[in-house]
Amino acid sequence: MEMQHLHHFIVTAQLGSVGKAADELNLTQSGVSRSIRTLEDLLGLPLFKREARGVSLTEFGRQLLPRAQSIWNARARTLNEMLAYKAMKSGHAEIGLHNVFAYTVAQDVLGRFSAENRDVDITVVTRSDPELSRRLVKEELDFAFSLFVPGFRDPRLIYESLFVMPCGTYAGVNHPLAGGSKLSVEQLADCDWALAGSTSLRTTFSAFFTDRGVMPPGRLVQSSSIALLAQLLGTNAFLTILPDPVAQSPLLVDRLVRIDTVESPASEPEGGLIYRPDLIRTPAVAALMDRFRELAATIG
């Protein structure tokens, strides 16, 4: 099996057309078709169903696609690392950051590391888990620094627990309930909420109320951006859940106030590093992972 056969298969699957794939690859249509047939003959399985307006994957093709993408991504990453060494660079790191860290506690680590390692290129992807885990499985990232989703662990990855993150209920400083007495669960349910995180956070948030026999809040805005969340809380009467170190970061500390509650939907999730056990790490990646381990010791 040659890499070019996998590449032609991936592009054709993504575009749904041999002709479009040929244009994208700067090849003839017959050349792409021949490459795919070679791959099908090698596997002994049909990968595409030919249709009037293009092609679609067979069940075998759907099984092969994520594996082919992982192989192709690994090849690309290896080539990029070797080219970086050739260019006298110390390497390249592609990392994932949970959304709540992207604009707050992680920026100092990244800034200092970049200043001290000017020959290291860093690419940062901001998402929540399990999206970060999915990207790690595909070898699109070297590692991730994230909050962990309760009950979720991909068996192909290592989840290195480094801290338990204390969280609280917060509002903008001008919120009518700021500075008031302890709010009951019923009062919290009557408020408008804005959350930053994955759909799993929304699920656990709603379960907090239903488990106590209370209807969950009727108005809930969810965003992956902490910066947008801060704007929403500053101009609207929203409550939110945030890790305490994030709410107390320079970006947010003067804009938010912690709400006193009888019970809070805020939990204390684990967090730390997520990575593949079989991925070869360059010295630059290993050093950056150690910087995040040091950061974790300060925020738990």
From TrEMBL:
Residues of the HTH lysR-type domain: 1-58
Give one Pfam family: LysR_substrate
Question: Superkingdom, according to UniProt?
Answer: Bacteria
Q: What are the entry keywords?
A: DNA-binding, Transcription, Transcription regulation
UniProt entry tagged with the keyword Transcription = yes
Entry's InterPro entries? Answer: HTH-type_LysR_regulators, LysR_HTH_N, LysR_subst-bd, WH-like_DNA-bd_sf, WH_DNA-bd_sf
* Family of this protein: Belongs to the LysR transcriptional regulatory family.
Under the heading PANTHER family, the entry gives: HTH-TYPE TRANSCRIPTIONAL REGULATOR YBHD, NITROGEN ASSIMILATION TRANSCRIPTIONAL ACTIVATOR-RELATED
Q: What is this protein called?
A: LysR family transcriptional regulator
Species annotation: Sphingomonas agrestis
